TrEMBL record, chain A:
<dbReference type="GO" id="GO:0051537">
    <property type="term" value="F:2 iron, 2 sulfur cluster binding"/>
</dbReference>
<dbReference type="InterPro" id="IPR051452">
    <property type="entry name" value="Diverse_Oxidoreductases"/>
</dbReference>
<dbReference type="Pfam" id="PF01799">
    <property type="entry name" value="Fer2_2"/>
</dbReference>
<feature type="domain" description="2Fe-2S ferredoxin-type">
    <location>
        <begin position="2"/>
        <end position="78"/>
    </location>
</feature>
<dbReference type="InterPro" id="IPR001041">
    <property type="entry name" value="2Fe-2S_ferredoxin-type"/>
</dbReference>
<keyword id="KW-0001">2Fe-2S</keyword>
<keyword id="KW-0479">Metal-binding</keyword>
<dbReference type="InterPro" id="IPR036884">
    <property type="entry name" value="2Fe-2S-bd_dom_sf"/>
</dbReference>
<dbReference type="InterPro" id="IPR002888">
    <property type="entry name" value="2Fe-2S-bd"/>
</dbReference>
TrEMBL record, chain B:
<dbReference type="InterPro" id="IPR005107">
    <property type="entry name" value="CO_DH_flav_C"/>
</dbReference>
<dbReference type="InterPro" id="IPR016167">
    <property type="entry name" value="FAD-bd_PCMH_sub1"/>
</dbReference>
<dbReference type="InterPro" id="IPR051312">
    <property type="entry name" value="Diverse_Substr_Oxidored"/>
</dbReference>
<dbReference type="GO" id="GO:0071949">
    <property type="term" value="F:FAD binding"/>
</dbReference>
<dbReference type="InterPro" id="IPR036318">
    <property type="entry name" value="FAD-bd_PCMH-like_sf"/>
</dbReference>
<dbReference type="GO" id="GO:0016491">
    <property type="term" value="F:oxidoreductase activity"/>
</dbReference>
<dbReference type="InterPro" id="IPR036683">
    <property type="entry name" value="CO_DH_flav_C_dom_sf"/>
</dbReference>
<dbReference type="InterPro" id="IPR002346">
    <property type="entry name" value="Mopterin_DH_FAD-bd"/>
</dbReference>
<dbReference type="InterPro" id="IPR016166">
    <property type="entry name" value="FAD-bd_PCMH"/>
</dbReference>
Amino acid sequence: MTKVAMTVNGKSVSREVEGRTLLVQFLRDDLRLTGTHVGCDTSQCGACVVHVNGEAVKSCTMFAAEAEGASVTTIEAMANEDGSLNTVQQAFQDYHGLQCGFCTPGMVMSATALLKDNPKPTEQEIREYLEGNICRCTGYHNIIKAIMAASGQEIPAIAAE
Amino acid sequence: MYAFDIERPTSLTDAVTALGREEAQALGGGQTLIPALKQRLAAPSVLVSLAGIAEMKGICMNDAGLLCIGGGTTHGTVAKGAVAHYPGLADLAAHIGDPAVRNRGTIGGSLANNDPSACYPAAALASGVTIVTNTRSIAADDFFEGMFTTALEEGEIITEVKFPIPEASCYIKFEQPASRFALVGVFVAKFAEGVRVAVTGASNNGVFRWTAAETALSANFSVGALDGLSVPAQDMIADLHGTAAYRAHLVAVMAKRAVAAAK
Ligand SMILES: Cc1cc2nc3c(=O)[nH]c(=O)nc-3n(C[C@H](O)[C@H](O)[C@H](O)COP(=O)(O)OP(=O)(O)OC[C@H]3O[C@@H](n4cnc5c(N)ncnc54)[C@H](O)[C@@H]3O)c2cc1C
Ligand code: FES
Ligand code: FES
């Protein structure tokens, strides 16, 4: 066991972990932040995406010990201070960007990372950015619309509809 | 996963010492190794994370005009940082996996792993890079020794990769849609001394140079120069994603597309 210390959603935390403890296990099991999901555990689906020092990473494919000293942000920190949904989250609701909601935490974290780098992405850029986020329900179109709306853009007639 | 310890050295010297221990293994971005550990395909007793070693990260041009990329530099950093110097390489890095994979995965990890379907080995071989380790420099032509096999010794660390910059280049991959790895990928690099063509994803022996195409393109750098050329199908990978003949066919198609788009 080794001790790790990091900042999660603005709070300092420290725990004893095994070398093999994944960041997602640390978040879900040790910190009880269960908003971050495990969809595949094989690095494919993106349900586990969180931000580490501002960058989107798959928390099932990083060890907790590698986040020593880092600042980690999860879906639990995305809502506005009064608890209402933030712009990206609200857009997912407004545009039916979720059905079962399993992929949604990862989708919101990826979308947020995209908009930070590229505040007005095109439909194609959004699709490319979400290549590592799999959704089994929505067929993606409404997710794309939600992200276009969250970035203050017109909602296009989506190509494949 | 079997149990192991993690060490996070901050200097190359400490990493080399840590890797000298029995059953120690380097951890780059973990984007290949962690899935392998989950499948219990590896059982190290200690993982030595290279992510905290500042001297192994970053991109710069050296005095000899080579683009030097630290072995611990992520795909995402190369995608942004190499655009101005070597657009063909930056574009390759920008299309590895997805953004989250690119934020963690490193060039050193990709080359050391030498997956037969990985993208970077094609760039390294076509560019004729020099791979610098903690002990020596290895030419790309001597580095790749077949699927998942390289010239690296146990515990040897890729610290830097030095890229000669071609006059024009392009990498085109036919993506395996589920994994986004290359079903077949071809990197074409046109230098003043001649053209180099490297093929990934196709061969049972891993990345290789397509010398017939190199000769034809060195004489005449045009799509038409590849007309009638093909690679033999017998060494090609055959799996549920494609037959050997299909892959052999794709090699020529991807090479033509790469020549057409090279800049
Ligand atoms: C969903 C997904 C999609 C992907 N798509 C692609 C793709 O399209 N194209 C592609 O090329 N790759 C793809 N990859 C693989 C990705 O590029 C990996 O990042 C890369 O292959 C390994 O780099 P790493 O830094 O993550 O290495 P690790 O996984 O940490 O290590 C891999 C191996 O290299 C060794 N190693 C690591 N760093 C060094 C070093 N500096 N010196 C010596 N040995 C070292 C390790 O000991 C280990 O044996 C994908 C991965 C995932 C999860
Ligand atoms: S759970 Fe991490 S990518 Fe699917
Ligand atoms: S909403 Fe169900 S997986 Fe995306």
